[in-house]
Amino acid sequence: MAAFARNQWYVAAYGREIGRELFSRTVLGEPIVFYRTESGDVVALADRCVHRRYPLSESRLDGDKIVCGYHGFTYDSGGSCVFVPGQARIPRTARVPSYPVVEQDSFVWVWIGEREPADAATIPRAPWLADPACTTVSGMEPLAARYELLVDNLLDLSHETYLHGGYIGTPEVANTPITTEVDEDRGIIYVSRHMADAECPSFYAKSTGIEGRITRWQDIEYHPPCLYLLHSRIAPVGVVPNADGTDPDGFHVEVVYAITPETEHSTHDFWAVARDFALDDTGVSDFLAENNRTVVLQDVRALDVLERVIEAEPEGYQELSVNIDTGGLAARRILKRLAAGEGAQVVPS
Ligand code: FES
Ligand SMILES: [Fe+2]
């Protein structure tokens, strides 16, 4: 049994995934049907007809209304039933829950908890993903593992050296100590690793064109529960930003993950890579898209295995944590606080 932080915003989809076709996705154990109204707004309703539970995503749109594919109950975009076959009276309880939705930074965010505290201003930002000054590649991979395993994975990048050798991992990543800071009030975790003189992995050598060794900075900013940002800076070795903060000789890559629990044992692993160089070079875009997807799938494979190990192990197994786990342990603490502090519900398997 896992407690989810329910009164939070979660990424449910990319905006490009939602159109005039009914689209279903489960978030925090709740099946949701998404579509756009004729005016382009995204609607999110519970994907279960109030009559006999038929999935509304298996139904059809009539203008902005969904007509259930089983017996024709018809719902407006707010989830209210406006037509019942064979009778004029519509029962007062004939409605399906609707979820608050915000489209921002190329994502569709949904609020799963109680409707009352949904405040769009609290959604963390990833502005690069919709910024014309950057070029972004992105995707989503299904993960057959609990979301906490992905949080752990992303907050400790020393695994790059071993799990992603030849792609983004070099010896310096695992060998360089991290610094971790936690902003307890805002609930944000920062983990940094600055490598002054490092081998350039192919991911960056091929995309930036830098030859030789690099100065490589990794600055993680995790906004629990859903949004993870890795500010990655690459430059020829010894090149650092100017005193005024400008950085014309650095290459900047923003690696963004949205970590959305699907169920207690599965996760939507949204990933995006935004860059501020080679903006129109489709060769670089194709290379980064394919390479990052390969890296994500290396993690997916490892975490899917870990999920099976955890499910099979005896109760009370104690893992061992070391320095590299400082960020991950802080994340667990904050996630627990978010789940408990908001009266999180236990989601049944
Ligand atoms: S299940 Fe939807 S109308 Fe009967
Ligand atoms: Fe990884």
UniProtKB/TrEMBL annotation:
Gene Ontology molecular function terms on file: 2 iron, 2 sulfur cluster binding; metal ion binding; methyltransferase activity; monooxygenase activity; oxidoreductase activity, acting on paired donors, with incorporation or reduction of molecular oxygen
Entry superkingdom: Bacteria
Keyword Secreted on entry: no
Positions of the Rieske domain: 9-110
Alphabetized InterPro entries for the sequence: Cholesterol_7-desaturase, Rieske_2Fe-2S, Rieske_2Fe-2S_sf, VanA_C_cat
UniProt cross-references to Pfam families, sorted A to Z: Rieske (PF00355), VanA_C (PF19112)
Tagged with keyword Methyltransferase: yes
Sorted UniProt keywords: 2Fe-2S, Iron, Iron-sulfur, Metal-binding, Methyltransferase, Monooxygenase, Oxidoreductase, Transferase
CDD domains for this protein: RHO_alpha_C_DMO-like
GO BP terms, alphabetized: methylation
Protein name (database record): Vanillate O-demethylase monooxygenase subunit
